[in-house]
Every structure is written in C-alpha cells, then in structure tokens.
Amino acid sequence: MSLIKREQIAGMNIHYMRYSLETFLNAQVEAGIHSIEFWTGVPHYYLDPTVYSDCKVLKKKLVERNLELVCFTPENCMYQYQFAASKPEIFEKSFEYFSNGIKATAELGCEIMQCNSGWGYLDEDREEAWKRSREMLGRLAETAKREGVKLALESLRPEESNLVITVKDAKRMIDEINHPNLKVLVDTTAMGVAGETLQDWFDVFGEKIIHTHFVDGNPYGHLVWGDGHHNLGEFLSTLKQNEYTGYLGQEITDSRYFLNPAEHDKRNIKAFSPYFSN
C-alpha cells in the first residue's frame, strides 16, 4: 500500500547523543534514510546566544552523503534557553539563542526551524507565562521572516509545559500571533497524551501543518514504530487523506535506544517499508 515516499522519513540524531556526528550521518545512509531533522545538541553542534557552529562544515558532511536537511531543531528542553523564560536576562538570552538558530537554519539552506511554547512556573499565573511565550514567538517569527525561514510550533506534554499542550492551545497561540512565518508541527506523542488524533489537528490547521514528529507511543514515549500502540498504517492513511506532503521527523528519545541507535533506525525503517511508494 503506497502511502508515503521514502524521502519523507527524516532521521534525527537525539538518540545518537553518545556517538559522533559522523556515526549518525553514516548510519542514516546505511538505513536508507535520505532526509534529516537536525537536533543541535552537543556534541553534534554548538549553539548559544552569541555563536554557533560553522554551517559550512555541517553542510559539507550532509552533501557528501546526499542527505537533505529538512528541519533544524535547537535543543530547547534540556538546556536553559526556553520560549517563556521568566527572568528578563534569560528571556533575552533565549531570544538571541533561538535567533541564532534561525540564522543557522537559513545558512544551511533549510526552510523550517522547530519551536514550542516553552513553559511557565506552576506557581505563577499561567496567563503571564502565556504573554511571554507569545511575545517571544512573535519576535522570532519576524526574525524568521527576514531570514526566509518558517517556524513550526509543536505542542508539549503536561510534564513539559503548562502552555501549548493541546490542539486548542496551539490554535489560540497561532491565532494570537497571526504571523505568516509561524506554522504548525504535529508531535504524535504530545497529541496522543492529550487524547487527540491526527485528524483533529488537520481539521483545525490543514495546510498550516508543515512538519511532524511522527513516532510510536503508548501514548507516552518517543518510540520506534512497533514498540508502541499507535497504528502506523492508519496514521499514514490520515496523512495521505489530508494531502500532507511534508516530512516525518523521527524524534526517537527513549534511552532504551541510546546504546545501539543504528540498529533501531533500521528496524524503524523496516516498519515503514510496506507503505513506501518508491
């Protein structure tokens, strides 16, 4: 059953964080993956509010392997930079951090950078944190416009945020900012935890969905397909019915995959194989 092109599967490097960048890239080639969503965590890439790694070096490594960069994803969960930071100094440093991410995205010839709402303190008024997130994302959308980049906003799980965690929250944020360079990313784990479906997101956003984090789950976990409870065939059918032609980022973050990520990537691609159209 032809539901997806092989090129739409975008390998990610989070579960290779204990390996070199070269090992990750070579493993993608060996697994038959052609597209990359690049996570900027150290040791694979350095990004901070003042500097970022030489994009020419990364681009050369990708070109040598005929790999296409389709989404740039600055680390924003484990590091101190986030989209709704409460302290003014950290808020501004976060803005510069993500602005540098946008600039690197453009230098790499990539069109999409991932983002989320960040989070507020649980002992503060949620609306105050919401205002900070809205301000940050609005400012960054303007930076993205100047650089020719689109931001793709994803929802998070309740353990990660008290801001955008549902499709309803995402619609509110998108509507309030109302910027042409702020689009939507569907994360199937956050979606599943919220009790939502892919069709729920397409019903609300349609063509504004420009990227996905498309992984299995229980619904928790960012798992290799076959290790969770989601129905891959049904999910892919929903994408096709809604004429989605974007990429499926394989955001595999569970630590069970860290020791031997290459073998798990091969197993993941094998799960997709019956649905490839080429």
From TrEMBL:
PANTHER family found in the cross-reference section: HYDROXYPYRUVATE ISOMERASE (PTHR12110)
Listed name of the protein: Sugar phosphate isomerase/epimerase
Top-level taxonomic group: Bacteria
Molecular function per GO: isomerase activity
Keyword set includes Isomerase: yes
Xref: Gene3D superfamilies: Divalent-metal-dependent TIM barrel enzymes
Domain called Xylose isomerase-like TIM barrel: residue spans: 29-262
Transmembrane helix listed as a keyword: no
Annotated source species: Niallia taxi
Keywords: Isomerase
